[in-house]
Amino acid sequence: MLSYLIRRLILVLPVAFGVSVICFLLVQIAPGDPLTAIMPIDATAEEQAAMRAAYGLDKPLPIQYAVWIGNLVQGDMGKSIASGRPVATEVFGAVKNSLLLAASAAVIAFPIGVFLGFLAGYFQESWVDRCVTALSITGVSVPNYWLGIVLVIIFSVNLGWLPSMGAGPGGSGAWEWDWLHVRHLVLPAVTLAVVPIGIVSRTVRALSGDILTQDFVQALYAKGMSRVDVLRHVARNAAATALSVMGLQLGYLLGGSILIETVFNWPGSGFLLSNAIFQRDLPLLQGTILVLALFFVAMNLIVDVVQAAIDPRIQRT
Amino acid sequence: MTKLLDIQNLSVKFSGKRNVHAINDVSLAMEQGETLALLGESGSGKSVTLKALLGLLPPKRTRIDGSMRVNGTDVLSLRGKALRKYRGGEVSMVFQEPALALDPVYTVGHQIAESVMRHKGLDKANAMSVALDMLDRVRIPSANRRLHSYPHELSGGMRQRVMIALALACRPRLLLADEPTTALDATVQIQILLLLRELQKEFGMGVIFVTHDIGVAVEISERVAVMYAGQIVEEGTTREIINDARHPYTRGLLAANLHDVARGTRLNAIPGAPPALDSAPGACSFAPRCPIALPACRAVLPPVFAPGPRRRVACLRATEPIAAE
What we know:
- The structure holds 2 protein chains of 2 kinds.
- By secondary structure, chain A is mainly α.
- Chain A has helices at 2-29, 34-38, 45-54, 61-73, 87-122, 127-141, 144-158, 179-212, 215-222, 227-255, 258-263, 269-278, 282-310.
- Chain B has a domain at 100-171.
- Chain B has helices at 46-53, 80-86, 98-101, 108-120, 124-137, 143-146, 156-168, 186-203, 214-220, 238-243, 248-255; strands spanning 5-14, 20-30, 35-39, 62-70, 73-74, 91-94, 174-178, 206-211, 223-228, 231-237, 304-308, 311-314.
C-alpha cells in the first residue's frame, strides 16, 4: 500500500507540470491585452512599453513561464493587475469560500444521493424506483442557475426567509460560524446540491441494482445472512465506484459553481474567475485556474488511493 | 429415525411474462447420510429443486405447492430468524460458479467466519480459527495464508474448495451441490469430486449432487434420481440405474456417454429438445423424443411403476422386457 501511495504521488508531478503549462498557455491564447484594461486610453507607446516591461510581458513566452513557475514554487503568484493585491491572497480567500460552499453542497447531496440510489436499486422496477429516477433526472436536467433564481424568488423575495446575496451580513466576505452567516449559505448550497444528488443517486442505483443480481447475493442468503448483512455486502461492493464518482463531483462542485456563485454573489473562486476574465486580469486568472486544476488533480489522487484501499481487486503493489 | 429429506408432490410455477411450470409433482425422499445424484439436462428443474429447498426462489413470482421436510421441519413454513438458522445451519449449498458465488471484496476467511459467527454464536477470533480449520479440511495448502486471500487471488479449484469449506463450516445435515464441478477444468473436477466424497464420509452429512454428467453421478452417489421436464422419471440405486435403466430417457443418457465409443462412429445423442414448460404436462413429457412411444404415451401421464423398494420408473412401457439394442 505504501509503495502504491508513493508511486501514485510521483505520478502527480508530470500531471501538475502539464496542468501549469496549459493554464499558462490558455490565458495567452485568449484575445485581449491585459494592459488596455489598466492603461489610460491616451497612453503613449513608450508608456505602454514601460508598463509591459514592468510586468515582464515583453519577454518570450518560455521565459515568462519560467519566471511565473519559479515565483510560484516560492509561494509568489504575482500581483493582481486590477486590484494590486497579491494573487495568492485573493485566490486562497476565494477558494476557501468556494470550498465551504462545495463541501456544504456535498454534505447535503451525497447522503441523500446514496440513500435514494440504494432505495431505487433495492426496489428496482417498483414505484419507489420510478419516483427516484424521475427526481434524479429532473435534478440533472434543470439548469441550476435557473433553479437558484427560482429559489431566490420564493425564499428571499416572496417569503423573506433567507438572504439571496453574499456570504455574510452586509455582503461581507469574512466567514464566521454563526446563524447570520450560515443562513447565507443555505440557498446556494441547496441549489448546488441538486445536480450531484441526481448523479450520485443514478450511479448508486445502477451499482446496487447490478450487485444485487450477482450470484454471491443469493449465496449470502443461502448461508443464512439477514437482509441487513446482505446490504452491508452490497454497500462494500459499491463503495469503490460510488466514492470515485463522489470525489469527482466534489471537484466539479468546487470549480463548476461559477454560475451559482454569480447568481448568489458568493465571493468564491468562480466569482473571482469571472471577474478576472472581464477585467483581463492575467495573473489572477492564471492563479485561479491553476489552483482549481491542482485541486482536481489532488481530488483524483485521493479517490484513487481510497479506491485502492477499499477494493482489493485494484492492484495495490 | 426421521428422514433427512421428504419432498411430497412438489410443484413450482413461475409467473411473469411467460409462465413456466418448472417442477411438476416431484416426490423424493432421502435417508440420513445418503448421497443422491439429481441427474438431468439444463432446464429439467434440478437447480430449481435445490433453490426451493433453501427458500431462495423469488417469492413474488413463484408459486410453490406440495411439501418439503428436512429432518421433520416443514421448509415452506419457515420465516425470518428460523429460516436464517436453517439456511447454512441445517442445509447449505455449494454453487456452480465459485468465482461468482463468493463476495469479491471480502477475504475468504471473513466469508467463512461470518457464517460461523451467525450460526454458532462465536466471536470473530474463534470463528476465524474455525475458518482456518475448515480450509485445512478441504486440503488448501498453506491455509493460514489463504485465509486472508481475496477470491480473485485463488484459482478456480481453490475457490470451489473455499466454497465447500464455507458450506460445511456449520456442519449442515444436508449439503446441496449445484453442479459444483461444471465450471472447473477436467483434472480439477476429479479432485473436487474425490474431496466431496471424502468429506461426506468424514462429516456424515447427506448430499444432493446436481449434475448433467452421468459419469459424475456414478462416481459420487449411491442413489440416482433422473429428472426430465420438472419431473422425476426414474429413481434407484446407482447400480440399478446403470445396469437396469428402465426409462427410455435414462437409457438415452447412458447411451450418449462418450465411453466405449468407437472412433468414427456417430455419437448416440437423444434427438429433439426438451419441451417448453408453458403448461403443466398432461402426458409423458418425453414422448415426443421417445423411440418407443405409443399413442397412449401422448394421451395420459405415465403410471409410476415400482419394481422394488425405493425404485420407480414413470413410463408406460417400463414393465416390458427391454428390446436388445
